[in-house]
Design brief:
By secondary structure, the protein is an alpha/beta fold. It contains 10 helices and 6 strands, in the order αββααααββαααβαβα.
Length: 264
């Protein structure tokens, strides 16, 4: 798969010990790449290729497109929030070296309702082959406020900074159902952590990902400065000045992508 951020964004990264701050802005020709690459990725966060194949086998081509489209949010707020989570997930996998093994948006019970639990849970293994985790919160707004950032930071600090047991069990249960033995093993490790809570602080990183229309450099810098310094911290801001129009364009592209699935 073609890299998303490498060809879309310029990254200004700063680091202070284990606190990492990325300020992302679109490259001169980056928007074209995003509009080409993102709709299909967005769709994949709501439905897997395997599910598409089963729906096609059941409904045939025309009805499949309409079925998939019902999974995509219609409201502006829902689209913005989901896109923030999707872009956070893509960033985590492309630039932070974690896998986000469960696409949680596939389990939404209503397309315009937010899901409970952490927005992103990433998994990886350290040099000693021990499981490490990333707990992430994503916020998306045309005008991001300080109170929204404070609420996100509070969520990250809950449960002593650990992903909630409920969220870990959700991920673990999904993974142990896989036919892939490696995914099963990761699922077992995640379930063990969910029930034991034995992982050290240093092996649980935090991520705050913000997709904004407004300039928030000082806001996110202040937040990161005050964040828990005993663990790895990542703060990412992707500024898109025409935030609302961008979100709508991506989801319109995803609707078209669903139509191409329906056409075979």
């Amino acid at each position: 798969m073609t890299e998303l951020y490498e060809y879309w964004c310029d990254a200004d990264r700063s680091r202070n010990r284990d606190k990492n701050l990325w300020r992302l802005s679109e490259l001169q020709d980056g928007r074209e790449h995003a509009l080409d690459e993102l709709p299909g990725r967005v769709l994949s966060h709501y439905v897997s290729d395997e599910e598409v194949a089963k729906i096609l086998n059941t409904l045939g081509y025309p009805a499949t497109a309409e079925c998939i489209r019902t999974l995509l949010p219609e409201g502006t707020v829902g689209r913005s929030g989901d896109l923030g989570e999707i872009l956070a997930t893509e960033f985590v996998e492309e630039w932070l070296g974690y896998e986000v093994p469960v696409r949680k948006l596939r389990d939404k019970d209503h397309r315009d309702m937010a899901m409970r639990g952490e927005d992103v849970i990433g998994v990886a293994y350290d040099d000693d082959d021990r499981l490490i985790l990333l707990k992430g919160e994503a916020k998306s707004a045309q005008a991001l406020s300080r109170s929204t950032v404070e609420k996100a930071r509070k969520r990250l600090d809950e449960d002593y900074g650990r992903p909630s047991a409920h969220s870990l069990i959700f991920v673990g249960r999904k993974l142990i159902q896989s036919d892939d033995p490696d995914r099963k093993e990761v699922g077992k490790a995640v379930l063990r952590e969910a029930t034991s809570g034995a992982m050290s602080v240093r092996r649980i990183a935090h991520l705050l990902f913000t997709l904004t229309g407004n300039q928030v450099d000082q806001l996110i810098q202040n937040d990161l400065d005050g964040a828990d310094g005993s663990r790895p911290q990542h703060s990412v801001n992707l500024r898109i000045s025409d935030h609302r129009d961008f979100v709508e364009a991506i989801y319109e592209g995803a609707y078209e992508e669903a139509g191409s699935v329906g056409d075979g």
